[in-house]
Amino acid sequence: MVCTILQHRDYHNTSMALEGVPELLQKILEAPDFYVQMKWEFTSWVPLVSRICPNDVCRIWKSGAKLRVDITLLGFENMSWIRGRRSFIFKGEDNRAELMEVNHDDRVVTTEHFDLSQEMERLTLDVMKPKGREVERRLTSPVINTSLDTKNIAFERYAFRVCILIGFLTLLSVLTK
To answer: How far is residue 165's CA from residue 99's CA, in Å, rounded to a whole number?
Structure first.
């Protein structure tokens, strides 16, 4: 029974994800090219807590139907953050896409190719039947949903004046203390 439920759920999630990819590719293509650098950090007033708080600089480039995301924060293990230099490069065109993960530290590139028309043809309920170990693993691990809803994705330009205003107000509050 559990095997059948997982099989149908996986089939549904995969087919929904594949159906949304052409629309997502079109939205990426129509959006203007950009570069964004986001620096974020968590801090605490409690001594030594700030040392375990995460921070990173995420850089995103968009050109045509291509996206590149650079990150340095990879995970958390044994009470410390795992760092490394990684790039994720997405190249989309028509019904094909390519996703590359570049590990700059180890000088390794992993590439996945997706041909949506072939993927949709190969997608059948029988193909999605989980193996015994997979069912066992899913029953003993927490439920994690990693689906991407492509219907509500939009690319919008953020008003630069708002960033200047927020920066000025932050600077003003620091100077008045």
So the answer is: 37
